[in-house]
Amino acid sequence: MNIFEEYLEYVKREVGVTISTSPLIVRKYIEHLLKSEGKYIRAAAVLAAAQNKDGSIHHDAVIFAASIELLHLATLVHDDVMDDADTRRGVTTLHKKYGRKTAVICGDYLMAASMSLANKTEKKETYLGYSLPTYMEAIALGELNQHINNGNYKLKVKDYLSIIDGKTAKLFEAAMYSGVATSDDVREQQETYQTIGHAIGMIFQLLDDVMDFDDNESVAKKPVQSDFEQGVITLPLIHAFSTYPEALQKAEQHELTRKDVNQYVRNSKGVEITIAKAETYYATAKTAIENLDIIDTKREELMRILNLAMRK
Q1: Which residues are registered as beta bridge partners of 87?
Q2: Sign of the torsion angle spanned by Cα atoms 231, 237, 242, 248
Q3: Are 309 and 210 in contact (CB under 8 A)?
Q4: Which of 54, 57, 105, 237 makes the best surface tag, with the fewest CB within 10 Å?
Q5: Is residue 215 helix, strand or coil?
């Protein structure tokens, strides 16, 4: 087990302790979420950015990583309610098991727990540039922006990118920023980590949107072939509408079937174009990582996370 795997276990333990020691009234609900453990890629991003020149990682990075994961968990709970999703990572969603109101309140509690945990770092006076609430605002606005644009078949590419920047990329950016804030890395490089985090987040969401057309539910571990039905307009569909105006017209008249959607996306090469967009973010992040003045193990871990986001 390398240092990153070792510290990731500390993060998982911290998340588990936070949930298992929460007030009983909420604990019996949110403990259900531990049954569908994710990959902790955001926590790994915190730890990767946090490694010092001597290879060590400050414990504050573990606190930040656990805080980021709790915030991510909260957003998933709220997402599932909004999407009326039945499963998440192969497990029944919180709102399907306990009801929508209970799930929303539990998501709110996890957000509060995330902020509370982040406030328990030892050297908080040195992290003045890192504001978790600011990132939380951006995430909420991204989700609201997506909701407002549900069913907006004329959504532009730039507006779509703005939406996923808020709802997904900001959390990866927060992960990288919080990690490097705990390290001995020079401040001049901190913006580079934000660039890397942003690019990884954009890749993650772009390929997640591709998954809705490209994977089956057993692979995705969540409902697929459902974004269009939920009114969520993603990049593959935007390209299909721009290539085939008749598809846009049929959508506006509520005559576009799922079979039609898949055919138009396939013919317009919407999936391939979306993957190509993800590749541009990959190139940006890869160049930024290569240009950092850091030890080899740190660079290797940053590249591992980038490749994981790119499904390489």
Answers
A1: 92
A2: negative
A3: no
A4: 54
A5: coil
Task: Find the helix or strand (DSSP H, E) in which 92 lies.
Answer: strand 91-92
Whether 172 and 45 have beta carbons less than 8 Å apart is answered as: yes
Distances (CA, A) of 29 to 46, 72, 92, 114, 309: 27, 17, 12, 17, 30
CA nearest neighbour of 144 among 156, 171, 162, 158: 162
> What are the structure tokens assigned to 66, written together?
């656990």
Q: Which residue in 72, 193, 40, 56 sits closest to 129, CA to CA?
A: 193
Separation between Cα atoms, residue 182 and residue 180, nearest integer Å: 5
Encode pLDDT of 141-177 as tens digits.
999 999 999 999 999 999 999 999 999 999 999 999 9
Token pair, residue 286, equals 């890869």
Kindly report the length of the chain: 312
Please tell me whether residue 271 adopts helix, strand or coil conformation: helix
